[in-house]
Design a protein that fits this description.
The complex is a heterotrimer. By secondary structure, chain A is of the alpha/beta class. Chain A has helices spanning 3-6, 11-20, 25-43, 51-66, 109-116, 159-166, 183-189, 223-233, 251-256, 278-293, 309-324, 345-356, 359-372, 378-401, 424-428, 435-440, 470-488, and strands at residues 46-49, 78-82, 120-125, 172-176, 192-195, 216-220, 264-268, 297-301, 404-408, 443-451, 458-465. Chain C is α+β, with helices and mostly antiparallel strands. Chain C is built from 3 helices and 3 strands, in the order ααβαββ. In chain C, helix 1 (6-15) packs across helix 2. Chain C is flat. Classes of the chains: A alpha/beta, B alpha+beta, C alpha+beta. Strand 9 (159-163) of chain B pairs antiparallel with strand 3 (88-92) of chain C. The complex binds magnesium ion and zinc ion. Residues 33, 36, 38, 50-51, 53-54, 168 of chain B line the site of zinc ion. Chain C: Its EC number is 6.3.5.-. Chain C: Keywords: ATP-binding, Ligase, Nucleotide-binding, Protein biosynthesis, Transferase. Chain C: Pfam families: GatC (PF02686).
Chain lengths: 499, 503, 98
């Protein structure tokens, strides 16, 4: 099998071929490393490629197979890991200058689980600094291009991961989703991304942005691949107090048995209107019709509090980040600037943070410091938490009437790099539809539903399920995916230009 | 303000009424830190007891130590507090290099225990009730070593070296309500409160509460108001007053200093102050202005703590006898005065004495050794009684040897000295040093005869009725027997042999 | 809801230990004023009688047994230190308490 062929296999296919001996893990890994060599200069999905580590892991998988040892369901399958998870001995920068060169002395729980499952970690992917952004332009190491159009953003913060998938540099990737950073990149690159229920995937070793919103999750090119990866990374972790101590929902089973027949699917009236691109709404409406055609009952929903979601989010997330990022002070690790023997620790901290953080991070730290400061706390942080309650209640009421909710993942398709770079409010709108889920803690997926007629860029369909019902995403997602592939005659990514 | 400007204590109290607030931090004696599994063992190699969590490495997360919570509830119950049905941790945000995350995980408006009191007994036996505002859980900071300045002080240091072994050790912060009405006895109340709290903590078994090791640290907040006024004056916060005596001195000093400032028409600045052991004074630290804004918010990495009522009641049932109640019981059993009891408390002698009695000694002997020889030794070596290298069982063995007549008091002191010097247990010291009362009448008789023969002049004096001179012969015999004779018996023998009877 | 001034931004930057340059202060003050103006909408619910949600999970009492787990070695702990001395993190002079 040629490299060109190998890199287009799904993760499920790759794993099966390695398990059967048709391919070796080393062949698969080398094919992907070659692809990275060929295209990543243009795409810039990776911040660090761990060639030696990946090949060593691949060799270990092949040795295991030869010895007749049991292999994990994704053994030997390459993966691109967002540079927000700690990796022992491998640089972890979180897209920031402040951690340039930092080599963690420990693995994140998710990293450990990937290794234990014999997944081959190719390297660390680019991201908006500290996961703050919707375009990956806030990376201190330069932007990532959207493989559909390299002049456009690949979404953010996990643009490196989505771009790695869409450019066939890896069949699997890991993202984190605080306000949409898995789903929005998936939507704008024509890939699949899932934000699991909050607490479903351990946050231990995932560098915190906003602790009560952050959630790691799977990114892939197919719904089944996402489910296989979901199963590997999910589960209770005693090192994370906010980790759910319950069995992982049967996501793989659901992905193998896609169906929407007889399901009640909600359409929320607040998820459309001003700011939504016509082509996005068109593809969304077609998706709803497609589900109706597959036997779903479509239910109109009114969730008035969702209109306040963005505002609440931009108070809660900055507040928590202002505290979470205080540890980057030049004392114990990371960058240190201005230590000339005359300056105080306080001065060195302030100089280092000034030099080491980018604008968006500084903006959010200041905003969060403001929202938490005495005199403003009740009006801002306190009110934002009330909005959070109202949004949760709106979801609860909605899920009494429906099994899942659907919406466009993003109001628009990928915009040009640079277009919104210095207009924070415009940038924030990219997460309009994804944020309510983070505030409430439930689960959501984005999967491709076509290209917008006006620009030919991918459009994402968001599916939202109640907390702990992640399997419903896969059941519905798999059915929708199959119907679209049948309709188009091929997966959407086949229409992407070759790089 | 220098010491000479102080108003006399009596004059200060004649014009003003002191109001105090005491904040005590207790390091719990858990095996592991509050939010990670690192050991809390003291005096280990620098940075050998740290992990991603207590170093604040990116990505790390906290998990609450169950025994930390249990200890907090026990302390709350023993302080007659209500125990929260539901409470949270909060982040207290401020930058300081000894704090790895640059926020302290603490509790803010939802402490685990609140609204309690502690009755403390003053030296004359009077009971003073100190109201408790709250007791909450938090974590300790790392330790800084300041290099390049004078004697490890921060000012003038060129840089500092940080060891995070202590960072994350569980702390319980216990805050009193304003202590009013103590009047001239405010400093005594402060000291008695801290002493009582320390006993309580030890009795609960949640910490050894050794102040000299920083396991218990006290901040003394104090303000004055003119007699008859309701509102409080501006307070000063004297930090890290780390011995019972210092607590009393710091309160006393601040009363005198505040009075001096107020008398001269000045105003008290709300500031932190540092206490100086050498002369008992305090000096100004950081001014507390409005720029200080800790931006507390609920710790999103932890979930709420909701102590089940049944569990709380179970812990309540398991509480030990309160130290004050126990002390009063012991005082009656031992038949000693309030004052003596207080001295034993201050010396930290009560537990060793009880243990010595439990090991078989009589109460009077146990008290005598611990408050005499051993207290002296502890004082001289700057240690507390509990850390002396002698066990209550060993002290009990010494009293047993005295009781059976094998040792006299003088020899017993030597035995104790030997044990403290690391020469082994009491029997080993007796053996090695050859310390035994010479009770062999024959040997003693010979020694007396020899002494009489060698000191004919003195013997004559005694024969002639100067019984007082017998002391010299006793001394000679004791010297000859290297102190191992029973002096009373020697005297009897001398008088007998010289045919004299005691007048 | 009042806007945010350049002076306030400077004060917040000090609290957050960010040594912002003059032009940054101006730039941020303008942007933050816009953002705060927009997000201040949340105060519409300030008077509503709903409990605040600080966390999406309804969990309580997640605790660990008081059992020692292995620590990092001092070498690992110090591996990222910008400077070290005597197996300790070496930091610039600390202003403040003595
Ligand atoms: Mg405190
Ligand atoms: Zn630790």
């Amino acid at each position: 099998m040629t490299d060109a062929h190998i890199i287009r296999l799904t993760a499920a296919e790759t794993a099966a071929k390695i398990a059967s001996g048709e391919l070796t893990a080393v062949e698969v890994t080398e094919a992907h490393l070659a692809r990275i060599d060929a295209v990543d200069e243009k795409v810039h999905a990776f911040l660090h490629v761990d060639r030696a580590g990946a090949l060593a892991q691949a060799r270990a998988v092949d040795a295991k197979r030869e010895n007749g040892e049991k292999l994990g369901p994704l053994a030997g399958v390459p993966l691109a890991l967002k540079d927000i998870f700690t990796t022992e001995g491998i640089p972890t920068t979180v897209g920031s200058k402040i951690l340039e060169g930092w080599i963690p002395p420990y693995d994140a729980t998710l990293t450990k689980k990937l290794k234990a499952a014999d997944v081959v970690i190719l390297g660390k992917t680019n991201m908006d600094e500290f996961a703050m952004g919707s375009s990956t332009e806030n990376s201190a190491y330069g932007p990532t291009g959207n493989p559909w159009d390299l002049t456009k953003i690949p979404g953010g913060s996990g643009g490196g991961s989505s771009a790695a998938l869409a450019s066939f540099e890896a069949p699997l990737a890991i993202g984190t989703d605080t306000g949409g950073s898995i789903r929005q990149p998936a939507a704008v690159t024509g890939t699949v991304g899932v934000k699991p229920t909050y607490g479903g995937v351990s946050r231990y070793g995932m560098v915190a942005f906003s602790s009560s919103l952050d959630q790691g999750g799977p990114c892939a090119r197919t719904v089944l691949d996402a489910a296989l990866l979901h199963e590997v990374i999910a589960g209770h972790d005693p090192l994370d107090s906010t980790s759910i101590d319950a069995p992982v929902p049967p996501v793989v089973e659901a992905a193998r048995n896609g169906s929407v027949a007889g399901m009640r699917v909600g359409v929320v009236k607040q998820f459309r209107g001003e700011g939504y691109q016509a082509g996005v709404l068109q593809r969304f409406d077609e998706s709803v019709e497609l589900m109706r055609g597959l036997g779903a009952e479509i239910v109109e929903l009114d969730c008035p509090s969702f209109d306040l979601g963005l505002s609440a989010y931009y108070l809660i997330a900055p507040s928590e980040c202002s505290s979470n990022l205080a540890r980057f002070d030049a004392m114990r690790y990371g960058l240190r600037v201005g230590d000339d023997g005359t300056k105080s620790a306080e001065e060195v901290t302030a100089l280092t943070r000034e030099a080491g953080f980018g604008d968006e991070v500084k903006r959010r730290i200041i905003l969060g410091t403001y929202a938490l400061s005495s005199g403003y706390y009740d009006a801002y942080y306190g009110s934002a938490q009330k909005v959070r309650t109202l949004i949760t209640q709106d979801f609860e009421k909605a899920f009494e009437k429906v099994d899942v909710i659907v919406s466009p993942t993003t109001p628009t398709t990928a915009f040009p790099i640079g277009e919104r770079a210095d207009d924070p409010m415009a940038m924030y709108l990219a997460d309009l539809c994804t944020i309510p889920t983070n505030l409430a803690g439930n689960a959501a997926m984005s999967l491709p539903c076509g290209l917008a007629p006006e620009d030919g860029m991918p459009v994402g369909l968001q599916i939202i399920a109640p907390a702990m019902k992640d399997d419903r995403l896969y059941k519905v997602g798999a059915a929708v995916e199959a119907a679209f592939v049948e309709k188009w005659g091929h997966p959407l990514l086949e229409e992407a230009p070759s790089l | 303000m220098t010491v000479t400007d102080l108003v006399s204590y009596e004059d200060a109290l004649a014009s003003y009424d002191p109001v105090m607030g005491l904040e005590v931090h207790v390091e719990l004696g858990t095996k592991t830190k509050m939010f990670c599994g690192c050991s809390t063992e003291l005096k280990q190699d620098a940075n050998s007891q740290t992990c991603p969590t207590c170093l604040g490495l990116p990505g790390s997360l906290p998990v609450v130590n169950a025994i930390g919570v249990e200890s907090a509830v026990k302390i709350g119950l023993a302080l007659n507090c209500e125990i929260a049905e539901w409470c949270r941790f909060a982040r207290k945000n401020y930058f300081y290099p000894d704090m790895p995350k640059n926020f302290q995980t603490s509790q803010y408006d939802e402490p685990i225990a609140f609204n309690g009191y502690l009755d403390v007994q003053l030296e004359d036996g009077e009971i003073f009730r100190v109201q408790i505002e709250r007791a909450h859980m938090e974590e300790d900071t790392g330790k800084s070593l300041h290099v390049g300045g004078a004697t490890g002080r921060i000012h003038g240091a060129s840089h500092s070296l940080l060891d995070y072994n202590r960072a994350g050790i569980p702390l319980i912060e216990i805050v009193t309500k304003p202590i009013e009405g103590a009047g001239t006895r405010a400093p005594e109340v402060a000291k008695a409160y801290v002493a009582e709290l320390r006993e309580l903590i030890k009795a609960l078994g949640v910490s050894e509460a050794r102040m000299e090791q920083g396991q218990m640290r006290c901040d003394v907040n104090l303000s004055l108001r003119p007699h008859g006024r309701e509102e409080f004056g501006t307070r000063s916060e004297t930090k890290n007053v780390n011995s019972l005596r210092s607590v009393e001195r710091a309160a006393r000093f601040e009363i005198q200093r505040h009075a001096a400032v107020l008398n001269s028409g000045g105003t008290i600045v709300q500031e932190t102050r540092h206490f100086h052991e050498e002369d008992g004074s305090t000096t100004a630290g950081r001014i507390k202005d409005n720029a200080e804004d800790y931006r507390y918010f609920p710790e999103p990495d932890l979930v709420p703590v909701a102590p089940a009522r049944e569990w709380v009641e179970e812990l309540r049932k398991g509480l030990p006898e309160l130290p004050r109640v126990r002390r009063n019981r012991l005082r009656e059993e031992w038949g000693v005065s309030e004052h003596d009891m207080q001295s034993m408390l201050n010396a930290g002698a009560i537990d060793p004495i009880v243990a010595t009695i439990e090991a078989g000694a009589d109460a009077a002997s146990a008290r005598k050794w611990w408050m005499g020889e051993l207290a002296r030794n502890a004082n001289e070596s700057g240690r507390d009684l509990a850390s002396l290298p002698i066990t209550p069982e060993q002290v009990a063995r010494v009293t047993a040897l005295v009781k059976e007549g094998s040792l006299n008091d003088k020899l017993a002191r030597q035995v104790i000295e030997g044990v403290l010097a690391g020469e082994g247990g009491p029997d080993d010291v007796v053996e090695k040093r050859g310390l035994k009362v010479v009770s062999d009448e024959g040997a003693l008789s010979t020694a007396v005869d020899e002494a009489i023969a060698a000191n004919a002049g003195i013997a004559d004096k005694i024969r002639s009725g100067k019984v007082a001179a017998a002391g010299a012969l006793v001394g000679a015999v004791m010297k000859a027997t290297r102190g191992q004779a029973d002096a009373a018996r020697v005297r009897e023998l001398i008088l007998e042999k010289l045919g004299v009877t005691e007048g | 809801m009042p806007g945010i001034t350049r002076e306030e931004v400077a004060h917040l930057a000090r609290l957050a230990r960010l040594e912002l340059k003059g032009e940054e202060l101006d730039h941020f003050a303008g942007q933050l004023d816009d953002i705060i103006g927009a997000v201040a909408r949340v105060s519409e619910v300030a008077d509503q009688d709903v409990p605040p949600t600080s966390h999406p999970l309804p969990l309580t009492n997640v605790m660990r047994a008081d059992e020692v787990r292995p620590s990092l070695t001092p070498e690992q702990a110090l591996s990222g230190a910008p400077a070290q001395e005597q197996q300790r993190f070496k930091v610039p002079q600390i202003l403040g308490e003595d």
